[in-house]
């Protein structure tokens, strides 16, 4: 700023800012927690290609393992007639499904048809009719394997982890008391079963307050939505999350009913609250409270010889929207915090 004033560029810079504000600078960039983790996983998958072509898809992806199990009983089969042993189909196979003897592992084949397009003699084809006994042995699929493959091991390991999640479902449901769910969300067990982790509620949240859960509620709760008041609050006049939820995990509510739904209960930490701890005036939380009767009340008091207005929570009126926590000026820990108590879960 000093350099701008010294070079007499304040006017041009201000004009540039005004020109960009309604366009590039006017774009609201949403923040989502754990985005860094997702990015690192993406980078990890990309780097695996330096080790082996499509290593993630061929050896590690649990979804691919599930597809491989189903593909072994597929009716569509690869046939090779009059093969000239050029090896082009094997070298071009993106999944490494074609063996040295030109047979193929049906469970690994993704039916990309590259072997058909690249075959110079057009000897490769896929048919629903099973090969005849008189066909050359090169056309027979050799799916038989000794032992267990890496993909099968990954699949079994992931299945075991998921089963462990179901086994400890009750303990994880208790952990849900540490997070704030969207307004009128179903009871925890029903919510976890109904939510498909589509992220629509987080995308439409106008304050960016709905964030994905990681392990706060155990394995079952991964990527389900929670309200994080320090990032964004639940807008008093908004019903978008319930209207956009495709499964009813967050039920749609008319605006008049949504205003009465409790997400939790706010509490004031008097040891760090500015009026209570320092005797200075601060009524930010009370000013922002959207409830008509004001869930945050003020009482006069004297602290350190100064007369101040001290805020306190009316538990009968508080809906736990989190705007008081979001706007509280105390840092790094907010003096007002919302806890998921007395929440209305349908």
Question: Number of folding domains?
Answer: 3
**Principal-axis shape:** elongated
Structural class: alpha+beta
Secondary structure tally, helices: 16
Instruction: Say what oligomer this is.
Output: single chain
Roughly what fraction of the amino acids lie in strands?
5-15%
Q: Supply the CATH architecture of the largest domain.
A: 2-Layer Sandwich
- Mind telling me the CATH class of the largest domain? Alpha Beta
Q: List the helices and strands in order.
A: HHHHHEHHEHHHHEEHHEHHEEHE
In the predicted model, the low-confidence regions spanning at least 5 consecutive residues are 133-146
CA distance, first residue to last residue: 53 Å
Q: Characterize the largest beta sheet: strand count, sense, and whether it forms a barrel.
A: 2 strands, antiparallel
Average pLDDT over all residues: 83
Assign the CATH topology of the largest domain.
Alpha-Beta Plaits
Overall radius of gyration? 30 Å
Helix content range of the residues, please?
25-40%
Give the number of DSSP strands. Answer: 8
As laid out across the biggest beta sheet, the strand order is 1-2
Describe this protein's structure.
The protein has 346 residues and is α+β, with helices and mostly antiparallel strands. It has three domains: 87 residues, 2-Layer Sandwich (Alpha-Beta Plaits), CATH 3.30.70.20; 94 residues, Alpha-Beta Plaits (2-Layer Sandwich); 85 residues, 2-Layer Sandwich (Alpha-Beta Plaits), CATH 3.30.70. It contains 16 helices and eight strands. A two-stranded antiparallel ribbon has the order 1-2. A two-stranded antiparallel sheet has the order 3-4. A two-stranded antiparallel sheet has the order 5-8. Strand 6 and strand 7 form a beta hairpin. It starts with a helix and ends in a 7-residue tail after the last strand. 27% of the residues are buried.
